[in-house]
């Protein structure tokens, strides 16, 4: 298949770490049990994907994750005929497999996909819960254990890439953001093994760098990047070098902006 999809089948005893910041876990469970599709909105690296992975394992359902892109078509999700062993055979796409198995299909950054994708999703996001496969003549009815989850980053929306109101109103929706400082500190410490006191300094630095969003930076420092930084630090890389590699270089190529970021880093950690 052309689409890059990951499949996780973790047991409830092997639940990926996730630190709740509100009632998001309970809301997701209610949506799952009432057969409602779920929409996550939030900036890059704030924990949307980890949250879905956590909830899939918690509910004991296989998770099909698709990273959407400009070339993603409806056929990539539903399936197509392929030549295998000298004969043409139908091969299910990740959405179809999730429907057949009763799994969770997660479309990350759904607004990046082509417009025909939303057409396929519509019958699955109302009381019909159907997936028509025109090429095979099948009409699949989603089982109770199937759930459709999509996400996007509103900060990157523009006129050519947005989710239509008619599509958004088919979902239970929740906004995600970076966790509160104390929660983010605990997340970074748990994921990296860096002592909480050093993680607190990183969180304070992140707040200063995020304040630059919309001025010098297009996007704020993600929790994911903070974990990367802490992971380097706990493995012997100096704080300044780790921060430069994870909090400066990925965020900007502009020399002046990078120097501004480095000033904040040196003010936090001092000179190496």
From TrEMBL:
Coiled coil: none annotated. One of its GO terms (molecular function) is ATP binding. Signal peptide: none annotated. InterPro entries: ATPase_dyneun-rel_AAA (IPR011704), CbbQ/NirQ/NorQ/GpvN (IPR050764), CbbQ_C (IPR013615), P-loop_NTPase (IPR027417). It comes from the Bacteria. Residues 38-171 form the ATPase dynein-related AAA domain. Residues 184-267 form the CbbQ/NirQ/NorQ C-terminal domain. It holds the Pfam family CbbQ_C. Keywords: ATP-binding, Nucleotide-binding. Belongs to the CbbQ/NirQ/NorQ/GpvN family. This is CbbQ/NirQ/NorQ/GpvN family protein.
């Amino acid at each position: 298949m052309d689409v890059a999809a990951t499949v996780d089948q973790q047991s409830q005893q092997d639940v990926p770490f996730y630190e709740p910041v509100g009632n998001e876990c309970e809301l997701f469970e209610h949506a799952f049990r009432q057969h409602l599709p779920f929409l996550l909105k939030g900036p890059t690296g704030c924990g949307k994907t980890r949250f879905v992975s956590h909830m899939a394992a918690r509910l004991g359902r296989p998770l099909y994750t698709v990273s959407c892109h400009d070339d993603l078509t409806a056929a990539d999700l539903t399936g197509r005929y392929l030549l295998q062993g000298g004969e043409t055979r139908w091969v299910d796409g990740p959405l179809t497999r999730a429907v057949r198995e009763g799994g969770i299909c997660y479309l990350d950054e759904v607004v990046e996909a082509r417009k025909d994708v939303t057409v396929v999703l519509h019958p699955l996001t109302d009381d019909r819960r159907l997936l028509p496969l025109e090429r095979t003549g099948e009409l699949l009815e989603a089982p109770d254990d199937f759930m459709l989850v999509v996400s996007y980053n509103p900060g990157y929306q523009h006129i050519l890439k947005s989710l239509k109101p008619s599509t958004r109103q088919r979902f239970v929706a929740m906004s995600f953001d970076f966790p509160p400082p104390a929660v983010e500190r605990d997340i970074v410490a748990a994921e990296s093994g860096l002592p909480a006191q050093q993680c607190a300094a990183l969180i304070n630095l992140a707040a200063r760098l995020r304040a630059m969003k919309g001025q010098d930076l297009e996007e704020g420092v993600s929790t994911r990047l903070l974990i990367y930084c802490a992971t380097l630090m706990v493995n012997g890389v100096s704080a300044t070098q780790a921060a430069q590699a994870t909090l400066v270089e990925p965020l900007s190529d502009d020399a002046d902006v990078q120097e501004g970021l480095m000033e904040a880093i040196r003010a936090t950690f001092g000179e190496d």
